[in-house]
Amino acid sequence: MLRVLFIALSLGWVSLGQAAVSFNRDVLPILAGKCFACHGVDQAKRKADLRLDEKASAYVERDGVRAVVPGQPEASELVARIFSAHVDEVMPPRDEVGLTEAEKATLRQWISEGAVYETHWAFETPEKPKLPGGGKWGHGEIDRFVLRRMAEAGLSPQRSASRETLIRRVSFDLTGLPPTPGEVDRFLGDTSPDAYGRVVDRLLESPRFGERMAIWWLDGARYGDSHGYDNDLENSQWPWRNWVIEAFNDNMPYDQFTVEQLAGDLLPNATGSQVLATGFNRNHRINTEGGALDEEWRTEYVIDRVQTMGSVWMGLTLSCARCHDHKYDPISQREFYQLFAMFNNLDEKGFINNLRGSAEPRIRYKNSEYERRKKKVEAAEENADRRKAEIGRLEAEYPFVMIMRDNKPRKAFILERGQYDAPGEEVQPGLMSALSPVPDNMPMNRLALARWLTDGQHPLTARVLVNRLWEQLFGVGIVKSSENLGVQTDWPSHPQLLDWLAVDFVEHGWNIKRMLRQMLMSAAYRQDAATNSERLRLDPENRLLSRGPRTRLAAEMVRDQALFLSGLMVEKHGGPSMWVYQPAGLWREVEKRGTFKQDHGEKLYRRSLYSRIRRTVAHPSMLLFDAPSREVCTVKRSHTNTPLQALALMNEVTYVEASRKFAERIIANGVTPGERIAWAFRAATARQPEPTELALLTAGYERRLARFRAQPK
């Protein structure tokens, strides 16, 4: 009775005017972050045999005590424990991160209101919600959801961005490059109502679109030009990168894009292109160091495939279930190794000493073209040395590429503690039953997995994709934690909009270009990015979209913009990667094998997408601007600020060369310093400088020129 009185006095009864608690929005994040580690899915780590993720376990009586008594917080042991002042009783324990007073109040209110449990929202198949009522603002369905959310928060939309801002924004978002002054002029001169729509359509049809999208996809696919680990010798996976670029440019439906990469080799009468697509699963690192244990590393490759698939397509951290049942999400260790069984049937080795190029299984890139041209060379060239050299060039142009081929069935086991040499119970291939119905009319293999992911009923696949596309355009996803949509994810800023987009995406054939166009045509995207104190107070991170997006350029865009503005960029699409400028002696400094042989000529000036990535010693400038090393799957890049970024822009050879060539262009575009500076400003920013900006820059130029004349040496 004293404990009940203490709880009542500590917190008081729930006010009648207090907003109702939502389990998914308010309670689940608290339980997942503070309670599930000891009272969740993982049986091995579970304390007191209590699960707070399941209502049956939470409600049941144990030794005369019930953790949760719906409607009766004063009778609930959970409430007593979280408010307890006794060191031996309080939960979470004192050596763990405790609950805040607000979190305690939320849990108590939830129990008082009936302790209603809900399935995690992201694990429910999305349904298309009814559109909110239309207002005077907006261009489509997206804006209805955005406007309603703004109104609920007491916000109003920002004015539209200027045309110069808008074409620069959308050009970077769709091609990774800025618009030319001519493209800006044509847009400014087009007064028709659909002028902006025509710009969007032109950019979506540009071959640059596939290159821009490929950079994003290659991060998740952990694509690199070397095998990783200590030796880190070169591979020849670039033809798979070509496939990705072409798939995006051809607007391949995302369900087909998924099926071909996960299981193209298992399709009936699979084409060479479909088999090549499965190179996605072979982009992992390969150990080529002497002394490595073959089975240990082969097991690591299979685990990597499972983890990467989970991150890329489902936004889940499957790696947590390698050693034990997942602590938060409904994924058992058994189910992890059932997925493992699907990727385990390749005739591959875990260790290949000093491997350069491709390991088996592999195919020759465009083999029919290679054979035709090889026969032509053999017939036309009589000199043996020249014939051998020419065939060598052909082999470099059509290399072997690592792919998937289920040609060695293997048994799979639950690995105790995730160790390759500790096999436990044997498992058969299978899927995660908690997410979506498992197909029963096909063999349980990678093709079944791919079909399951894209059947339109899977709760995660479409949500994950549209959220990440949204993140590309708006800087942050509708779900901020775009890398993880499991139980520990953030609550969506616009949950109904996310579900509407996911269902609409599936209904219209998994059409990526159409989805991007919908987002880009919205008034929300077209807003000016300017803000004020009121917007910052009510919407500090712009989660409610009370202003337009203001995002940083990706590492590749920083370099590509410099090459583009200077006129140095060489635009050739596809092909092998290039060794561009890097700091002298870099490989020696980190004791890396091999001698760096820089490429020359136009190879130095292609888009950054085609720069070689040696994973253990990736290009420092790319790393400085937050590009991943591609050693492992990365579905969300970090954002950092460091003085080294400024130093790289001032001193790295690429930027020094680009600045000199840009200066030559500036001199050729004007007579007076003011004219030249105005031209340069517009070329770089897509807009004319304000008079004060032009005066400031001109004065700075004159000051530096005078200093140089006074001290030319």
| Tally of discrete structural domains | 5
Please count the helical segments.
30
In terms of per-residue confidence, which ranges show pLDDT below 50 for 5 or more consecutive residues?
1-17
| Rg, alpha carbons | 29 Å
Biggest pleated-sheet summary:
2 strands, antiparallel
Distance between the termini: 89 Å
* Helix/strand structural class: mainly alpha
Q: In which range does the helix fraction lie?
A: 40-55%
Spatial strand order of the main sheet: 1-2
Layout of secondary structure:
Blueprint: H1 2-11, H2 23-34, H3 36-39, H4 55-59, E1 61-62, E2 65-66, H5 77-83, H6 101-112, H7 141-152, H8 163-175, H9 181-189, H10 195-204, H11 207-220, H12 238-249, H13 254-263, H14 272-277, H15 294-314, H16 333-342, E3 362-364, H17 367-380, H18 384-397, E4 400-402, E5 412-415, E6 423-427, H19 446-453, H20 461-474, H21 495-507, H22 512-521, H23 533-538, H24 555-566, H25 586-589, H26 620-624, H27 643-651, H28 653-667, H29 673-685, H30 691-710
Antiparallel strand pairs: 1-2, 3-4, 5-6
Helix pairs in contact: 2-6, 8-10, 10-22, 11-12, 13-19, 17-18, 20-21, 20-22, 24-28, 28-29, 29-30
